[in-house]
Design brief:
The protein is mostly beta strands and 281 residues long. It has four helices and 17 strands. The protein has helices at 2-7, 13-17, 90-93, 271-280, and strands at residues 23-26, 35-38, 50-54, 57-58, 79-86, 100-106, 115-124, 130-143, 147-158, 163-165, 172-174, 180-191, 197-210, 224-225, 233-247, 252-258, 261-266. Strands 7, 8, 9, 12, 13, 15, 16 and 17 form an eight-stranded antiparallel sheet that branches. It has a four-stranded mixed sheet with strand order 4-3-6-5, with no helix packed on it. Strands 11-10-14 form a three-stranded mixed sheet, with no helix packed on it. It is globular and about 75 Å long.
């Protein structure tokens, strides 16, 4: 629930794995590369074994094998509750739910009360510098009991702790290179034009950018990397959706229309591997 998320300062999927039994992850070192695992069931390539839902929209991604792209990790902005359904859940959720399903449920629009929340935090990274996060949510009824709007935004910065050295001179060329920046926005609208009918358009946007992956070079000592190319990147996710529900008295009809766009760009230094092929030519 939302209270527990706030009390324990849980802001992302990695934080969630520390408090939920049988929920873990493995990573290639860069944000957005996590492979999520429930009950120890995982996949290194092909279909995921854990379904990911943002409200009623599936945002499950295929496991990309050797590529450093994993499951989407929505920032926990304006989240009402998180449901961890241990698998197999194929009967209700179909493919990619052998291990289980993770559902992120956001707060609905309140059509009668005006309100909002705001929070900020400041911390530090050992062997690095300061970190910060700021978030705010505003709920505004436009027509009392009929139409309302909910807006949320958050930004955070985590300083790096890995230094980069030149493989040619051995000199330092960058400090704290693996810093992370996250920007998130959520827009939710609800209209009830007639009795029993609810129309809910929603939009979720998230962009994570990082200066370098969280990997180190063995033999250089702690928190050091010796790559010729800086391996930074970004992970952008956009999820628009439209949910229409109609209460017919004895039954409720629901229609969900959605889209899911994700653009995960990253740079990988393949010098050590490519040199073998180039040198043989």
């Amino acid at each position: 629930g939302a209270a527990q998320l706030n009390e324990q300062h849980l802001s992302n999927t990695e934080d969630l794995t520390r408090v939920v039994p049988n929920f873990s992850f493995s990573s290639n070192g860069n944000p957005g590369s996590n492979a999520l695992e429930v009950r120890g069931i995982s996949s290194s390539a092909g279909a995921s074994t854990v379904g990911i839902y943002l409200d009623d929209v599936s945002i499950t991604a295929r496991t990309r094998g050797t590529y450093n792209v994993g499951q989407p990790e929505p920032y926990l902005l304006d989240v009402d509750q998180i449901e961890v359904l241990r698998g197999p859940q194929g009967t209700l959720y179909g493919a990619s739910s052998e291990g289980g399903v993770i559902k992120f449920r956001t707060n609905p629009v309140n059509l009668t009360d005006f309100g909002g929340t705001a929070s900020a935090s400041l911390s530090g990274t050992q062997h690095g510098g300061p970190n910060y996060s700021v978030s705010a949510v505003l709920n505004a009824p436009l027509v009392d009991g009929i139409m309302g709007l909910r807006l949320g935004a958050a930004t955070s910065y985590d300083d790096g702790y890995i230094d980069r050295y030149s493989p040619d001179t051995g000199g330092k060329v960058g400090s704290n290179v693996n810093d992370h920046r996250t920007n998130v926005a959520r827009l939710a609208f609800e209209a009830r034009p007639v009795e029993g009918l609810a129309i809910n358009p929603n939009l979720f946007y998230e962009r994570i950018s990082y200066g370098s992956s969280d990997t180190v070079s063995l033999g250089l000592g702690n928190y050091s990397v010796e790559d010729r190319v800086s391996d930074g990147g970004s992970d952008t996710m956009i999820v628009p959706s439209l949910t229409v529900t109609y209460d017919m008295g004895g039954a409720t009809r629901t229609s969900i229309t959605s889209d899911y766009t994700r653009d995960a760009k990253y740079i990988y230094d393949g010098t050590a591997f490519n040199s073998v092929y180039i040198g043989a030519c």
